Amino acid sequence: MGMAERIVCHPACKVGKGKDWAWDPAGRGCSMGMGLGCRQQDSEEEGRRAKKYGPIVRINAFHRVSVMILTPEGVKEFLMSPQYPKDRMVYRRISNLFGERFIGNGLVTVCDHEQWHKQRRIMDPAFSRSYLIGLMETFNDKAEELMEKLEEKADGKTEFSMLTMMNRVTMDIIGKVAFGLELNALSDDRMPLPHAVRMVLEGMTKARIPLLRYMPGKQKLVKEVKESVRLLRRVAKECIDQRRKDIQNGKEATLDILTQILKGDALEETRDDENILDNFITFFVAGHETTANQLSFTVMALAQHPDILERVQAEVDEVLGAKRDIDYEDLGKLKYLSQVLKESLRLYPPVAGTLRWTDKEHVVDGIRIPANTTLIFSNYIMARLERYFKDPLTFNPDRFSEDAPKEGSISAVQGVVGKAVNSSTDTLVNRAVEMRDATMSALCTANERDKMH
Ligand code: HEM
């Protein structure tokens, strides 16, 4: 059976149906970005404004002024500099959900530059190349397990959510490689964590609505979100306690994300277990949900473009042949697959953008930006602007081929995601990206190979 037949798009899917600003085919919006204020409707409306008014757009919401900056110069100016912190008011909204501490002061939400920098430097070793090479075995095993599950389901009649499958496999992977946990979310449908993550993400989106937690019709949702946050923090605590016990019993420490989180805490003057839990949950959620979204979008795009799928298959065949396991070196040879993943990230970014704050006045592209303003950066919108990408709504991985004429756009748009998170110590995020790419390549290639046998 062809892949396209196996994949079931959500009925809300508008991609490729003539909509200008198509968003998430699952009708659900993106990962962490949602919590930061990037809803589908907002992005569509802001995109229309950008087309109408130009790449620097003022947005008024009650007494607050925000400016959306969609120029490469603006991205560079504000995201490459430590002078512009994350916007406290916005990030605070996801630190706690309905009064329950969620990702608190973790790496995503910490707004003080010095504190952020310290945390980032400590995390770097957990993203070293040698560590990543050691993860290939897990990636391969989990990819194989995913294929077995997909085969069971693919009877040509049953509809199932590819996103759910991807969420489960990426959760198993991050659990194992970052925290040494065997979660088995893929094999155990009753496992409560996937549902808890879904609820907290919904909570992040809904927390934008003022006073929602007091609305009579929303009490069930609020209760469920709070319970989910508590469940995540409980799991985190148990895992941390176990790791500490292992260390006390002389067990050799694995180099992983949890080890680095614990090291970071040991260096603090005021040690705080709650902070450790914040970072556990930050990496747990940020490390799998984004990747699952990107994988699902990529599968959807491949299903919609059989010619591209064929090229991917041919490359996988050529590079891997009948090999079961992918080696780290193979990843660099899967060039076309890598282009497909980049194009998927361009058109369907799991995180739509980021925000910063300026307390000083600026002039960007001749336009005055007042002091005390929230700055909004959207890679989602930039990727859909004709001024940066030729025929922007077309899924065309050849934009990223080595010999394609360099669209200035590509670095501009990558800049939003890349520079936002890279500004001073870039190892962590580069490696997170490598980790993501390795996971995705392993999962995608397993998918392609399985299709052929
Ligand atoms: C397709 C996959 C991914 C995408 C699209 C993505 C995107 C992003 C973006 C745009 C940010 C910046 C958010 C902001 O500053 O407002 C971010 C931050 C972050 N991501 Fe990812 N990410 C992905 C995968 C991962 C993975 C695999 C991990 C961990 C293993 C991870 C961990 C983090 C962390 C810890 C931060 C905060 C970094 C900091 O502020 O220093 N992400 N990500």
From TrEMBL:
Organism for this UniProt entry: Limosa lapponica baueri
Catalysed reactions, semicolon-separated: (24S)-hydroxycholesterol + reduced [NADPH--hemoprotein reductase] + O2 = (24S,25R)-24,26-dihydroxycholesterol + oxidized [NADPH--hemoprotein reductase] + H2O + H(+); desmosterol + reduced [NADPH--hemoprotein reductase] + O2 = (24S)-25-epoxycholesterol + oxidized [NADPH--hemoprotein reductase] + H2O + H(+); 4beta-hydroxycholesterol + reduced [NADPH--hemoprotein reductase] + O2 = 4beta,24S-dihydroxycholesterol + oxidized [NADPH--hemoprotein reductase] + H2O + H(+); testosterone + reduced [NADPH--hemoprotein reductase] + O2 = 16beta,17beta-dihydroxyandrost-4-en-3-one + oxidized [NADPH--hemoprotein reductase] + H2O + H(+)
Role, per record: P450 monooxygenase that plays a major role in cholesterol homeostasis in the brain. By promoting constant cholesterol elimination in neurons, may activate the mevalonate pathway and coordinate the synthesis of new cholesterol and nonsterol isoprenoids involved in synaptic activity and learning.
Family to which the UniProt record says this protein belongs: Belongs to the cytochrome P450 family.
Top-tier EC class: oxidoreductase
Protein name, entry field: Cholesterol 24-hydroxylase
MF-aspect GO terms: cholesterol 24-hydroxylase activity; heme binding; iron ion binding
InterPro entries with a match to the protein in the record: CYP46A1, Cyt_P450, Cyt_P450_E_grp-I, Cyt_P450_sf
Membrane topology classification: Single-pass membrane protein
